[in-house]
């Protein structure tokens, strides 16, 4: 995290390349890092907004109580200025990504385009990432579908795993890929069953590795300027976690909290619940492969 400047503040606009700007939402947490990054695409009169972020109740950017995105819609509108928002896109519908789409649409008339709606119970530990039940897109993009505006073209890249409805967005003109929560430089993505699926997540990582994107702009943390190298490392990391799990089960039946303690030594206590969800995702995947089995609350190698 040392390469992320201390000077970045919520509500400020930062230019990353001619067609790409970023506005940081004021919702930092152990799961969102410095906050949700809303990406603005376009340099002319037509702007696409990617991941408008959390919704709020009217506090201003900079207010010390503003920890859930209040004022962020106003910051987006300030950054857009006199240009017209022609598309509001969401990578997925966790509560730190999509709720601001509705108020932004109400203020601008721009359509909500992108991932499919998804509303399920989130039994994981991430209170900031419960699903947004009110998300209502005007158009759902399928894998490979495109939208365009003045000087830009965006293509949907389906990447299920973190959530079943997760999309990345490729900016055709520059080779950039907006990766949402699927690939981030500062942290691995939480894969939390029942909607999170480790098998799908690994397939989506391989899908990105097979592409030739120049740079990744995630929803949290710094840009990734070595995409394929990072993704290769992430695939290796997940395979290492799988080997760790199987190694522990070779010693006997295990419950997930004890596995987390062994596998994530020194982990912040606030993140142990999320780590447990990812361990569960690996176990569910291994169970589908017939390699492990659940006996009560303990997991063991399949007979």
UniProtKB/TrEMBL annotation:
SMART domains recorded: Lactamase_B
A GO molecular function held by the record: hydrolase activity
Domain of life according to the entry: Bacteria
SUPFAM superfamilies: Metallo-hydrolase/oxidoreductase
Residue span, Metallo-beta-lactamase domain: 35-220
Pfam families the UniProt entry points to: Lactamase_B, WHD_BLACT
Coiled coil: none
CDD domains: metallo-hydrolase-like_MBL-fold
InterPro entries with a match to the protein in the record: LACTB2_WH (IPR041516), Metallo-B-lactamas (IPR001279), RibonucZ/Hydroxyglut_hydro (IPR036866), Sec-metab_biosynth-thioest (IPR050662), WH-like_DNA-bd_sf (IPR036388)
Keywords attached to this entry: Hydrolase
Keyword set includes Hydrolase: yes
Name of this chain's protein: MBL fold metallo-hydrolase
């Amino acid at each position: 995290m040392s390469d992320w400047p201390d000077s970045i503040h919520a509500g400020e606009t930062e230019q990353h390349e001619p067609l790409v700007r970023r506005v940081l939402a004021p919702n930092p947490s152990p799961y969102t890092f410095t906050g949700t990054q809303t990406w603005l695409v376009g340099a002319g009169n037509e702007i696409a907004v990617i991941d408008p972020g959390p919704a709020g109740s009217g506090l201003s950017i900079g207010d010390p109580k503003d920890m859930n995105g209040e004022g962020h819609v106003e910051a987006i509108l300030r950054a857009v200025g006199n240009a017209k928002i022609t598309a509001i896109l969401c990578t997925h519908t966790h509560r730190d990504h999509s709720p601001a789409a509705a108020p932004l649409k109400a203020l601008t008339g721009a359509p909500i385009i992108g991932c499919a709606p998804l509303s399920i119970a989130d039994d994981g530990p991430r209170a900031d990432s419960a699903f947004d039940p009110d998300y209502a897109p005007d158009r759902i993009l399928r894998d490979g579908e495109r939208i365009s505006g003045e000087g830009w073209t965006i293509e949907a890249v389906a990447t299920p795993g973190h959530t079943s409805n997760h999309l990345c967005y490729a900016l055709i003109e520059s080779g950039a890929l907006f990766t949402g929560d699927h690939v981030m430089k500062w942290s691995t993505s939480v894969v939390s069953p029942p909607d999170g699926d480790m098998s799908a997540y690994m397939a989506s990582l391989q899908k990105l590795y097979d592409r030739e994107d120049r740079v990744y702009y995630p929803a949290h943390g710094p840009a990734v300027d070595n995409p394929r190298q990072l993704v290769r490392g992430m695939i290796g990391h997940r395979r290492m976690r799988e080997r760790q799990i199987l190694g522990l089960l070779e010693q006997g039946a295990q419950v997930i909290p004890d596995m987390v303690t062994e596998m994530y030594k020194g982990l912040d206590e606030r993140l142990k619940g999320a780590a447990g969800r990812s361990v569960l995702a690996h176990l569910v995947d291994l169970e589908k492969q017939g390699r492990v089995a659940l006996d009560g609350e303990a997991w063991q190698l399949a007979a």
